[in-house]
Each structure stands twice: as structure tokens, then as C-alpha cells.
């Protein structure tokens, strides 16, 4: 029997982030579109969760956002593929942030429901994955949005629909 631990080798991944609370307080004084655009442009720090997944914002528009990440093997589950929670987190992020782009300063949101459908496995070493979220229906107390993740070749990997409560 082979010593799997010795064969596997040790890897190291360093993750750095800034205290998210000052950024969140600043964000409350900006519209969602202004806040997310400032994060995308690097004028204010992004959320710590983005550092864990290597997530970066590519496009921020009213009612629609796009983010990319290149998963590595540190995100694998025990059966050798990217954990489904990574896709769910990316989808929750783009669905929620799409809603956030429609909100004025001082108004927030909270995810209350997210349904994810996993269509294909995600593996490291196959390039970036791209998540897009778009608002389906805005409301004064609740908003509905959908999202999808595609691989570098454009193949659909996962989809989601989500509901966000609007908090004032």
C-alpha cells in the first residue's frame, strides 16, 4: 500500500485581506452601484471571501454583474473536484450583488433563498470560470435574480435563482 500523504506533497496558499467592517460602513454611504464599482476598480478593498476564491469583479452595471475566478486544488472536495460550495458562493455573490447595484445609499439586502443546479463538475487547471448575475424582478421589499457559471470554453457549469430581502 502506498503512503498517500507522502506522495501527495504539501502545498501552501497565503490569503490576505483587510478588516471588512470599515469598508462595509463606507459602502452604506454609497449606492450599491457606486460601492461595487469602487471595489471592482480597487479604490476600496473587496470582501475577504473573494480572497479565498481568487474572485475578481469584471463588470458592474445596473442590475447585472460579472465575476471571474480560477479555481485551484485548494478548493477540492474529497473526491477530487472543486467543492460545490465554491459555485454556490460565487452564485450567491453575483445574484446578491446584481440586486445591490439597484439599491440607493443606505439600503442593503440579505439573501433569503438560493437554489443552485450543478450541471458539470468544476476542476482546477482548466482556466477561469465566469459567474454572471442579473436581476429578474426588483421590488421595494424583495428582489429576484438569477445567475450562471460558465467555464473558459463557455460551457454552462451551474445555474442559480435567488431571492433577496431589501433592508432599510
From TrEMBL:
<dbReference type="InterPro" id="IPR006683">
    <property type="entry name" value="Thioestr_dom"/>
</dbReference>
<dbReference type="InterPro" id="IPR039298">
    <property type="entry name" value="ACOT13"/>
</dbReference>
<dbReference type="GO" id="GO:0047617">
    <property type="term" value="F:fatty acyl-CoA hydrolase activity"/>
</dbReference>
<keyword id="KW-0378">Hydrolase</keyword>
<dbReference type="Pfam" id="PF03061">
    <property type="entry name" value="4HBT"/>
</dbReference>
<feature type="domain" description="Thioesterase">
    <location>
        <begin position="80"/>
        <end position="157"/>
    </location>
</feature>
<dbReference type="InterPro" id="IPR029069">
    <property type="entry name" value="HotDog_dom_sf"/>
</dbReference>
<comment type="similarity">
    <text>Belongs to the thioesterase PaaI family.</text>
</comment>
<protein>
    <submittedName>
        <fullName>PaaI family thioesterase</fullName>
    </submittedName>
</protein>
<dbReference type="InterPro" id="IPR003736">
    <property type="entry name" value="PAAI_dom"/>
</dbReference>
